[in-house]
């Protein structure tokens, strides 16, 4: 066993960290928000930062850091651990980094895409020139993807797509939709859909903003009205969409912005070391110490899942069950941390950014308390995760 | 023992419920929360006409002689529907301490106007980096020519930006017993030197920073006796904790009601999500949390109504509700899924208020510490 | 609203309390164990205390305190609140009090028994001369009573019973079995059983002890081999057994030994006020204060359910849902209290009674840690309670 | 990074697993737990023959040069099966501090005999109403004629009743820095004045009260340097916390394995109970608790094996496992229902050990406090 990075990985991590520190504008922390495992406050999903994010992405892409996990033959470094390192450092600094293209689309194309598709798309994705949003969920197909209604009907060498997708995180600031649509309505639930790439600029696509509870526009309702998609944009086999979606699960699971956990812990520690309450430093209150230690321990636990999963992917030993635990624990921990931060900050925790009395990176706790609830419901609810772990992981009988 | 509301209380509850549902649709609630003033003067008048501001005050001050428990029933409905207004500040933080401690002249002057909805009053207590204990009151008032001069900053003062008067707890002498030497002043909000800035808070609940920059207050404006203000504050905090708890229980009830309807209608995996055992157990936990908390709130309110000391009951209720309401809104969000994470939905209003409610008048840990003390630890 | 006892109830409570204090032997606390909502340590279920318990019961019975809740026409006081008062005070003192006879058998006979059955049995029960054990559970019918296999076959004016009952709490120290047996195997699950009273001394009954994890014999495996039960011992209608069992549910729910919660809190408070750790009184540790307050609050919550339920029964407004919450919360709280006691007592918590270093009533915490787990599994598991509350109480759709 | 056991470690794990399953059936475990001595001398010899007592010691002392991580793997299996024996005391509480701090002569004298299973050693540290910090060591040893005389009471000393030697941490001088002035003595358990009484504990895990009534110890029996014993104790506690955590993780794994089998077989309401969503979610929580805790334990063990400071990792692991094992056994009982509440069943053995394990070497709150300190708070 070895819990440490290799020397090469250490050097790499330092390089990434230094690059980001230099690269990000000095007021980045003040301008952006971020909460670990939250879906509501990713800078790269906001219109305001779209241009900067895109430029940043291309810089990162040039360094090869958007595709560290990919095989060398497709320009990658063949190291999901490095990919995880990049992600951890980026999210620590809240850098506008990462997304569907590099974690889901790229790896899926590598696994099931045609040669011509690989040639066309992989370089664009790796260079940060093609970004994607995830077109899976629909108003009546949230946890239950099998119920999706969006149809793609073959018509010559095109598919004609009609339907409605919801959430569409970042649809308004990305280039393409990574779409799952029903191609065979007669087939049983899971043999009926197909993955395809759809250019956001195709006529018939209507992207309407959804404001989240933080007042940020990161989600969208997207309507497809006779949208024509060339056949060559189909990813993998037709009617194998559900299986291809599952393939990417292992890559997807690691997108949680791991570094944000480390960051928020550091900020809390700094805060209680600096802040007096009733004439006593908060850090000297045994209750505060107990709470922070409890969080620190849980963060260490999810870090252990994180690195193990990245390492296992490199070994070809990915465990869906353990990755699900990572998602489950991480998102639930995010809520716990937000609550704990509020308990420690007291009345000051409720102040929003911009207030002179707002502590902890200018209103962060208050943002976190809102954003944190998105984690356990997004990308597979905690309930669904628990089902999966029990049934697929532990072999318990289905209902 | 009798654990049922009286017929009058049931009627009050129903009237309040229906009025609020009709007059405060969620669109308006959201608009008011985002507005600077934070309330509708028109609806404020209607509430006054319903006698709500008069409810808890004696008839001799134009009140209608209701009990604190009656007030709590009304507040529960205000929490259920959400009713942005300076009602809480004016009646609980302003009116009750005046009723408790002011002299007859002050009462005659102020209470009828409160009861009529003509005055907005609030209480300035919390100071930067300090808590809710006697030792936390450090802003000073110094005597000068038959007046007092207040200098210092108070934080999280509800509705101060629209208030006519601010009750301000300050230190008028340095006694070794920190519970002595605190005096409550009635300060005109428009007095020179009073600077009021609205704080932008999680629940947009109109809390202010109030800077008292050499504010002169005549000594006639002392409420109660000079130097003996702490018991007034302490009992006001006790009542405020119970009153806030009632709003919170109401809010939690609204969340479970919304979530129950949704979970019976929303179908995933070919069945209503409310038929999943995991979801059912969430509901059991929410419901049990709510009824358990409500029992404690009513008990504390009843104790206060009976005129007894309710330090223990109030702290227990507030601590319990603080936990419970947060748990309930978090589970509520879990049931609503993505749709509840949108601004358009109503869930987040309650989620915000669950935390704001917990933070106000002493959060869970503060109240547990109070409970420990009351238990003789 | 009124949260207080009436003056009469206060006087009554004081009378009961004084009686028990005088009546119980001075070394009672040292000789017996008890943990709130635990099923493993009831003195009245142990052979050692059988004679004393029976004598105590008869004394209490003479005062009318075993039947306070019954209608006056059957010798009761028509007050379940008084019944609850007696129970609360008795359990505070760990008195060998209460049981199936007074909480379940008596009330059920009152509701569905024949006139002759009432005449025969109610006085005996009220006087403490007839005690019962509950013959419901079987090895394969725990949570799922519908699956019971014990058969009672009509034969002339008798029933012949064959089968096996499990748990049988106190079967070895009581007089009669309150038996649920299948009388119509052809009927659907819940229309097939009958309640009857069976004398423990009837030939063919074999009571075998089960030692619980505390090393106490309180449970039994009971075998019925051609046991003859006279027809007049049938309670209520034949084949209505399941419905008659449900009738008693409201009375049964209150049997949790409420006073033991108050007692254990008092003991904990006393302990932390008296005990130093590292030179500091435990009561001055903010973590300890927080933990005890948290428990005290939860105890107050279940007390509120307790009195409300008793009061509602007197009003004819019993709510099964609220009573289920009482059982659910009470038993889970019992576990929490045991854990908290252990956290506060530290190493000393693990000492068993008899050790000179054992604090808190001589090893109580250690007993509690074992006994507490029985609550959430006995008399309807927490899972079943949560199902019932959601489905019957909140109207959620069945699976 | 590499998160897999080596082939040797896998083999060690399997051997241990099979040996323990075969040699320590639960009937024997229960018998040993209820016996006075608490272990089987015969099996002790067999374990020695397998090289378990030698595992972690260098070859020069007849050890087999395994790592601390190897030891942890073995201990995990001992926790899985439960293996009542003085192994933990002898190797972790006795052997490791001797290896770390004793002089060459002492090592040569003691370690080979430990490695051969010829000696039982333990550590006497805890004192009445005191904790595990340097300041908690208050029993004194006073010099007298080239010897030291120990007087005082130590509690919760594992296996002292069968030990040949007791390492005893005492205060030999009163320094203002409480971490100085502590000395570790090697005391013959049969020395005059040593009175050992077995305590009856929840887990029947053979903890003793040891009264040192003017026990004379030659100064040659000092382990390490006089007055500088605290670092020895501190590092021993660190290792003991990780080692105990490993046993606890093993125990938790045993519970989930037993409960899984049961829940697949036990039918209620016409379906296996493991098919109920509520039960499934219990299992997910248990499993996630276990693997999360195991990761921390292995990391701490790895850090110790690498020779690094592991104060933070050890405290995190112990705190996490202390919570997790308790949660797992409580849920395990929930799944087994009534049958698990009987003496005949095996569940209660683990339930007892989950608490005993948490209490030993610093419980959850103690370890969290350590974590806070390590984090610079």
Give the helix/strand layout.
The complex is a heterotetramer, with two copies of chain A (399 residues) and two copies of chain B (377 residues).
Chain A: H1 7-23, H2 28-31, H3 50-62, H4 80-92, H5 100-112, H6 115-126, E1 132-135, E2 151-155, E3 158-165, E4 176-182, E5 193-199, E6 205-211, E7 217-230, E8 234-235, H7 241-247, H8 249-253, H9 258-274, E9 276-277, E10 280-281, H10 286-314, H11 320-345, H12 360-371, H13 382-393
Parallel strand pairs in A: 1-4
Antiparallel strand pairs in A: 2-3, 3-7, 4-5, 5-8, 6-7, 9-10
Helix pairs in contact in A: 1-4, 4-9, 4-10, 5-6, 9-10, 9-11, 10-11, 11-12, 11-13
Chain B: H1 7-23, H2 26-34, H3 41-49, H4 68-81, H5 87-101, H6 104-115, E1 121-124, E2 140-144, E3 147-158, E4 165-171, E5 182-188, E6 194-199, E7 207-218, E8 222-223, H7 230-265, E9 267-268, E10 271-272, H8 277-305, H9 311-336, H10 347-359, H11 364-374
Helix pairs in contact in B: 1-4, 4-7, 5-6, 5-7, 7-8, 7-9, 7-10, 8-9, 9-10, 9-11
Describe what this molecule looks like in 3D.
- The complex is a heterotetramer, with two copies of chain A (399 residues) and two copies of chain B (377 residues).
- Chain A has 399 residues and is of the alpha+beta class.
- Chain A folds into three domains: 7-130, Orthogonal Bundle (Butyryl-Coa Dehydrogenase, subunit A, domain 1), CATH 1.10.540.10; 133-240, Butyryl-CoA Dehydrogenase, subunit A, domain 2 (Beta Barrel), CATH 2.40.110; 251-393, Butyryl-CoA Dehydrogenase, subunit A, domain 3.
- Chain A has 13 helices and ten strands.
- In chain A, α1 packs parallel to α4, α5 (100-112) runs antiparallel to α6 and α11 crosses α12 (360-371).
- Chain A is globular and about 75 Å long.
- Chain B is an alpha+beta fold.
- Chain B has three domains: 7-119, Butyryl-Coa Dehydrogenase, subunit A, domain 1; 122-227, Beta Barrel (Butyryl-CoA Dehydrogenase, subunit A, domain 2); 231-374, Butyryl-CoA Dehydrogenase, subunit A, domain 3.
- In chain B, 51% of the residues lie in helices and 16% in strands.
- Chain B has helices at residues 7-23, 26-34, 41-49, 68-81, 87-101, 104-115, 230-265, 277-305, 311-336, 347-359, 364-374; strands spanning 121-124, 140-144, 147-158, 165-171, 182-188, 194-199, 207-218, 222-223, 267-268, 271-272.
- In chain B, the strands form three sheets. In chain B, strands 1-4-5-8 form a four-stranded mixed sheet, with helices on one face.
- In chain B, α8 (277-305) runs antiparallel to α9 (311-336), α9 (311-336) packs antiparallel against α10 (347-359) and α9 (311-336) runs antiparallel to α11.
- The longest helix of chain B is centred in the middle third of the chain and has 36 residues, at 230-265.
- Chains in contact: A-B, A-C, A-D, B-C, B-D, C-D.
- At the B-D interface, α8 of B face α8 of D.
């Amino acid at each position: 066993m070895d819990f440490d990075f290799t020397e090469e990985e250490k050097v790499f991590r330092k390089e990434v960290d230094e690059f980001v520190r230099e690269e990000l504008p000095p007021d980045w922390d003040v301008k952006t928000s971020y909460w670990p495992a939250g879906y509501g406050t990713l800078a790269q999903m906001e219109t305001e930062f779209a241009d900067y994010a895109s430029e940043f992405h291309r810089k990162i892409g040039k360094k090869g850091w958007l595709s560290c996990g990919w095989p060398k033959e497709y320009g990658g470094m063949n190291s999901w651990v490095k990919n995880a390192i990049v992600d951890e450092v980026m999210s620590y600094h809240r850098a506008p980094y990462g997304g569907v293209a590099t974690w889901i689309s790229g790896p899926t194309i590598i696994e099931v895409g045609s040669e011509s598709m690989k040639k066309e798309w992989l370089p664009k994705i790796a260079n940060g020139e093609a970004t994607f949003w995830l077109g899976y969920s629909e108003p009546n197909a949230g946890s239950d993807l099998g119920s999706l209604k969006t149809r793609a009907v073959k018509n010559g060498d095109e598919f004609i797509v009609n339907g409605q997708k919801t959430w569409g995180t970042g649809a308004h600031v990305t280039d393409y939709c990574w779409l799952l649509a029903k191609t065979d309505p007669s087939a049983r639930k899971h043999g009926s859909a197909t993955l395809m790439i759809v250019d956001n600029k195709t006529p018939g696509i209507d992207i309407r903003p959804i404001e989240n509870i933080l007042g940020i526009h990161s989600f969208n309702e997207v309507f497809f009205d006779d949208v024509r998609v060339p056949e060559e944009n189909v990813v993998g086999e037709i009617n194998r969409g559900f299986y291809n979606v599952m393939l990417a699960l292992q890559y997807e699971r690691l997108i949680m912005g791991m570094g944000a956990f480390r960051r928020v812990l550091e900020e809390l520690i700094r805060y209680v070391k600096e802040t007096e309450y009733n004439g006593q430093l908060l850090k000297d209150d045994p209750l505060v110490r107990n709470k922070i230690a409890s969080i620190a321990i849980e963060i260490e636990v999810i870090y252990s899942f994180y690195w193990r999963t990245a390492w296992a992917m490199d070994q070809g030993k990915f465990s869906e069950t353990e990755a699900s635990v990572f998602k489950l624990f991480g998102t639930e921990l995010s809520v716990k941390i937000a609550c704990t931060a509020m308990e420690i900050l007291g009345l000051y925790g409720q102040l929003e950014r911009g207030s002179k009395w707002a502590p902890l990176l200018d209103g962060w706790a208050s943002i976190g308390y809102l954003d944190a609830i998105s984690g356990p419901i997004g990308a597979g609810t905690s309930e669904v995760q628990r089902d999966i772990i029990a049934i697929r992981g532990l072999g318990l009988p289905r209902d | 023992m009798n654990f049922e509301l009286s017929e009058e209380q049931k009627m009050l509850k129903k009237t309040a419920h229906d009025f609020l549902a009709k007059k405060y649709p969620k669109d308006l609630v959201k608009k008011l929360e985002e507005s600077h003033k934070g309330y509708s003067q028109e609806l404020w008048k209607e509430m006054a006409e319903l006698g709500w501001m008069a409810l808890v005050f004696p008839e001799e001050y134009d009140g209608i002689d209701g009990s604190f428990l009656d007030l709590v029933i009304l507040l529960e409905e205000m929490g259920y529907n959400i009713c942005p207004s300076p009602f809480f500040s004016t009646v609980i933080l302003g009116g009750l301490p005046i009723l408790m401690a002011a002299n007859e002249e002050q009462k005659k002057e102020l209470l009828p106007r409160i009861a009529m909805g003509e005055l907005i009053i609030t209480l300035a207590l919390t100071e930067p980096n300090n808590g809710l204990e006697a030792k936390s009151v450090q802003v000073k008032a110094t005597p000068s020519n038959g007046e007092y001069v207040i200098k210092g900053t108070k934080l999280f003062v509800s509705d101060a930006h629209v208030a006519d008067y601010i009750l301000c707890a300050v230190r008028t002498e340095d006694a070794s017993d920190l519970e002595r030497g605190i005096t409550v002043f009635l300060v005109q909000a428009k007095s020179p030197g009073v600077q009021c800035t609205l704080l932008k808070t999680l629940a947009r609940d109109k809390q202010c920073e109030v800077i008292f920059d050499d504010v002169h207050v005549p000594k006639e404006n002392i409420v109660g006796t000079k130097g003996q203000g702490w018991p007034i504050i302490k009992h006001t905090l006790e009542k405020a904790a119970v009153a806030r708890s009632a709003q919170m229980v109401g809010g939690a009830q609204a969340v479970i009601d919304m979530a129950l309807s949704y979970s019976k209608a929303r179908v995933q995996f070919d069945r209503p999500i409310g038929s999943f055992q995991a979801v059912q157990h969430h509901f059991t936990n929410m419901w049990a949390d709510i009824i358990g908390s409500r029992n404690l709130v009513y008990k504390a309110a009843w104790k206060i109504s009976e005129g007894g000391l309710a330090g223990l009951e109030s702290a227990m209720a507030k601590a319990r509700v603080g936990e419970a309401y947060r748990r309930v809104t978090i589970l509520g969000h879990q049931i609503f899924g993505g749709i509840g994470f949108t601004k358009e939905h109503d869930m987040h209003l309650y989620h915000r208020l669950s935390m704001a409610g917990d933070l106000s008048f002493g959060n869970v840990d503060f109240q547990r510490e109070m409970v420990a003390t009351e238990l003789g630890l």
